[in-house]
Amino acid sequence: MRESEPESLRAKKARQTRHALHDAAITRVLDEGLECATVANIAADVGVSTRTFFNYYATKEDAIVGLDESNIDAKLVDDYVHSDSGVENLAEDTARFVREVLLMGSMDPSLPARRRKLFARYPELVSKRFDRAEALEELVAEHVLARLRFLGQEFSTEESAWRSARMLTQLCRVPLNHAGQTVKRSPERIDEKTGTQPLFEESLGLFLKVLDRL
After folding, report:
1. Does the N-terminal or the C-terminal CB of the chain have fewer CB atoms within 10 Å?
2. What digits encode the pLDDT tens for the residues 26-76?
3. How big is the chain by its Cα radius of gyration, in Å?
């Protein structure tokens, strides 16, 4: 497995701001109700402007559910799609790309319980999160397909190409899901300085070993 590149300060700040907005949105809704939570007070809770808020989420509801497919970083996409890395590193590269896109902020062990409380109180948000997650995964699959084509992969039909990209996207979510389960079971393993990155690397290493043995 290739050594991962350290997260840039810019990327780290963006990730932390996105997570903080999502966390603040959940807190506002749980404390004051869905109608009372506004973009202005969510942004103020984090110490950013409403303009900055809209750099991360298109609507208040998007911040509450924590997903917005409109804000995938263009450089992240370009680096993944046009990587010099060959097909032998496709699974690893895709798993890292999927993590960067789908991991909103950090795998905070308290978030699942707070989300469950939120969705129990406002069930209309469940379908919105599902729709957003589905749209985001479809967009990720589009970039995965672009990477496959960049690598010179050929498909008999367009439908076959899309099915392959979607399958690879879903497969490469496994390390992220596995790391998330580890955090849920053992939150004390989250490092204060490096967060959940070591747990993801551990899960990714296991994932690649399993693939190699198949």
Report:
1. C
2. 999 999 999 999 999 999 999 999 999 998 888 898 899 887 666 677 788
3. 18
Query: What is the model's pTM?
Result: 0.72
pLDDT interval class at 125 (50, 70, 90): confident
Q: Within a 10 A sphere around the Cβ of 208, how many other Cβ atoms?
A: 17
Token duo for residue 32: 């004051």
Q: Pull the structure tokens for residue 185.
A: 């079971």
Measured between alpha carbons, how far is residue 20 from residues 130, 178, 199, 203 in Å? 21, 23, 21, 25
Tens-digit pLDDT profile for residues 154-199: 999 999 999 999 999 999 999 988 988 887 788 788 776 777 788 8
| CB < 8 Å & 24+ apart, contacts of 9-12 | 11/73
Reading phi first (left if > 0) and then psi (alpha if -120 to 50, else beta), residue 183 is in alpha
In the block, residue with structure tokens 């907005």? 21
User: Which structure tokens are listed for 117?
Assistant: 């409380």
In whole angstroms, what is the distance from residue 106 CA to residue 187 CA?
12
Which residue carries 């496994």 as its tokens?
A: 174
Q: In which residue are the tokens 């008999």 written? A: 156
Contact 130, 42 (CB under 8 A): no
